[in-house]
Automatic annotation (TrEMBL):
Record-linked Pfam families: Sugar_tr
Entry-linked NCBIfam families: SP
Protein name: Major facilitator superfamily (MFS) profile domain-containing protein
CDD domains, per database record: MFS_STP
Length: 517
C-alpha cells in the first residue's frame, strides 16, 4: 500500500483516545526535554574551546603553533591534529559503548532514573573538565560526559513519545531538539564571553559551566513520574493507570490503557508463554526489520548532513575561512540563534504537515552548495584571504543550511526512532539508534579536520551528495507516522508498499487480537 494510504490510516487513528494536552503533561515533557541541554551544550562548547588560543596553548601547543604559522600554507590544514580531534570525539565513543548498557538499565528501572543517571554522570564530567590539568584529565571528563549523553539520549526521546498525546507527540518530542539548540546557543554565548576573560582561564568557565544543564536534568528528573508504558512493562498496572489519567486530564482512559497493556503483552502472544524476554534478540526478528532499518539509517543520514561539523567546529571553520577569533565566535552565535528559531518552525508544523514533508523540504534546502563559496575564495590550494563581503555571504549560506536542518533532520532524526518501535523492544531499538548516532558522530568528528585538509572545499560536496541520497530515501521508504498512537504504530509499516512484505499472516492476526484486548 502506498505511503499516502498509510498517512490516511494515521489520520483515522489519531482521534481514537480521549484526553487533551494538560498543563501537567506539558510541564512534565518540558522538564524531561531539558536533557537536551547537556547534549547541545557540549556540541556548542567543544568547537569554541578548541578555537581559544589559551586552551590550545595549555593542552595542544603544537596545534597553536601550527595555526600561528599557517600563513602561506593551506588554510584547510592548519587545525589538523589527531590529539585535538581525539578530545572532541572521545565523548561520542564513550556514548557509543555506554548506549548498549543503558538500554537494559532503562528497561529495568524506568525512564526517569535513566535521565537522572545521565545528569549525574554529565555533572561529574563537567567538574573534571573544568578543573583539568592535563590531556588525560580532559579525556576522562569527556568519557563521563559521553556516558551522560548516552543515558539522556536514549531515555528522554522515549519518555517524551510515551507521555505525549498521539496527535501532539511530534510537538512535545521536538521539545528535546529545542533544548539541544538552546544548549548550543548558550554554549556559543559562554564561549564568546569566556574568550574575553583575561588571565587565560576562560576555557575553564566554558567547560565547567556544563555542570549547570547537568544539574537541571538531574534535579528535574526526580520530580517526574515514569511513563505509563514503562510502568506497565514493569508490572505496575495501577500506578500506570493513575499516571495516564493525570497526564490525559480525564478518567476515560480505558481504550488507551487497554492498548498499552496489549502492546506490553504482544511478545507473549508470539511466544505462546510468559517466558523471559530478550529484547536484544527479539529486535533482530523479521517483523522488526522495518523499524530496525530506520533506527540505523535515520541517525546515519542525520550525521552525514554534516550538521555536527558546522556546529561543534563552527568557530574553527569560520577561522579557517578567514574570520578573526572574535568574529568566528560571534558567527557561531548567529548560527545558534538561527537553529533555535528554525526549530520552532518544526514544532509548529510537524503534527500538521507531517514528518515526510518536513524531511523532504529540509533536505532540498540543505542541498545549497556551501562548498562553492569556499572554493571560490580559497580554490583547491587553500591559499588566500577572504573579503568581509564574501565572509558574510558564507555565514548567510551556512545559516540557510542550519535552518533547513533545524526544522527537518535535526528534530525528526530524534523523534522518528523513538516512536516507531513496539514497547517490548523500544529501549533496545532506541539504544541501537543512539549507538549508530554516536558512532557516526565519532567518525565525523575524527575525520572532519583531516578530510578538510585533504578534500578542501570538496568535503562540502561530499555532504551534499549524502543529503541528496537521504532525501530520495525518505520519499520512497519512510511512511507517515503523525497522529498514530505509539502502541498502534505497527499498522503504518504493515500497510507500506515495501515494508509490508516483512509481516506474515500470523502478525496480522496478532495485531487484530491485541486491538480487541
Amino acid at each position: 500500500m502506498a505511503a499516502a494510504t498509510a498517512a490516511d490510516v494515521a489520520e483515522e487513528m489519531a482521534s481514537v483516545y480521549s484526553g487533551k494536552l494538560t498543563l501537567y503533561v506539558f510541564l512534565t515533557c518540558g522538564v524531561a526535554a531539558t536533557g537536551g541541554l547537556i547534549i547541545g551544550y557540549d556540541i556548542g562548547i567543544s568547537g569554541g574551546v578548541t578555537s581559544m588560543d589559551t586552551f590550545l596553548g595549555k593542552f595542544f601547543p603544537s596545534v597553536l603553533h601550527q595555526e600561528q604559522t599557517a600563513r602561506g600554507t593551506s588554510q584547510y590544514c592548519k587545525f589538523n591534529s589527531q590529539p585535538l580531534t581525539a578530545f572532541t570525539s572521545s565523548l561520542y565513543l564513550a556514548a557509543l559503548v555506554a548506549s548498549f548498557f543503558v538500554a537494559s538499565f532503562t528497561r529495568a528501572l524506568g525512564r526517569k532514573w535513566s535521565m537522572f543517571g545521565g545528569g549525574v554522570s554529565f555533572l561529574a564530567g563537567a567538574t573534571l573538565n573544568g578543573a583539568a590539568q592535563d590531556v588525560a584529565m580532559l579525556i576522562v571528563g569527556r568519557i563521563l560526559l559521553g556516558i551522560g549523553v548516552a543515558f539522556c539520549g536514549l531515555s528522554t526521546p522515549i519518555y517524551l513519545s510515551e507521555m505525549a498525546p498521539p496527535r501532539l507527540r511530534g510537538m512535545l518530542n521536538i521539545g528535546l531538539q529545542l533544548m539541544i539548540t538552546v544548549g548550543i546557543f548558550s554554549a556559543n554565548l559562554v564561549n564568546y564571553g569566556a574568550a574575553k576573560i583575561r588571565g587565560g582561564w576562560g576555557w575553564r568557565v566554558s567547560l565547567g559551566l556544563a555542570a549547570a544543564p547537568a544539574c537541571v536534568i538531574a534535579v528535574g528528573s526526580l520530580f517526574l513520574p515514569d511513563s505509563p508504558s514503562s510502568l506497565i512493562n514493569r508490572g505496575r498496572h495501577e500506578q500506570a493507570r493513575r499516571v495516564l489519567r493525570r497526564i490525559r486530564g480525564t478518567d476515560e482512559v480505558d481504550d488507551e490503557y487497554g492498548d498499552l497493556v496489549a502492546a506490553a503483552s504482544e511478545i507473549e502472544v508470539y511466544s505462546g508463554c510468559s517466558a523471559r524476554r530478550w529484547p536484544w534478540r527479539d529486535v533482530l526478528q523479521r517483523r522488526y526489520r522495518p523499524q530496525l532499518a530506520m533506527a540505523v539509517l535515520i541517525p546515519f543520514f542525520q550525521q552525514l548532513t554534516g550538521i555536527n561539523v558546522i556546529m561543534f567546529y563552527a568557530p574553527v571553520l569560520f577561522k579557517t575561512i578567514g574570520l578573526g577569533g572574535d568574529a568566528s565566535l560571534m558567527s557561531a552565535v548567529i548560527t545558534g540563534l538561527v537553529n533555535i528559531v528554525a526549530t520552532f518552525v518544526s514544532i509548529a508544523t510537524v503534527d500538521s504537515l507531517g514528518r515526510r514533508k518536513l524531511l523532504f523540504q529540509g533536505g532540498c534546502q540543505m542541498l545549497v552548495i556551501i562548498g562553492t563559496l569556499i572554493g571560490v575564495v580559497f580554490g583547491t590550494s587553500g591559499d588566500g584571504n577572504i573579503s568581509r563581503a564574501l565572509a558574510v555571504c558564507i555565514v548567510v549560506f551556512i545559516c540557510v543550511y542550519v535552518a533547513g536542518f533545524a526544522w527537518s533532520w535535526g528534530p525528526l532524526g530524534v523523534l522518528l526512532p523513538s516512536e516507531i518501535f513496539p514497547l517490548e523492544v523500544r529501549p533496545a531499538g532506541q539504544s541501537i539508534s543512539v549507538a549508530v548516532n554516536m558512532f557516526c558522530t565519532f567518525a565525523v568528528a575524527e575525520a572532519f579536520l583531516p578530510m578538510l585538509c585533504h578534500l578542501r572545499f570538496g568535503l562540502f560536496y561530499f555532504f551534499s551528495g549524502w543529503v541528496l541520497v537521504m532525501t530520495l530515501f525518505v520519499s520512497a521508504f519512510l511512511p507517515e507516522t503523525k497522529g498514530v498512537p505509539i502502541e498502534k504504530m505497527t499498522v503504518v509499516w504493515k500497510t507500506h508498499w515495501f515494508w509490508g512484505r516483512f509481516y506474515s499472516i500470523q502478525d496480522a492476526h496478532v495485531q487484530v487480537a491485541n486491538s480487541k484486548v
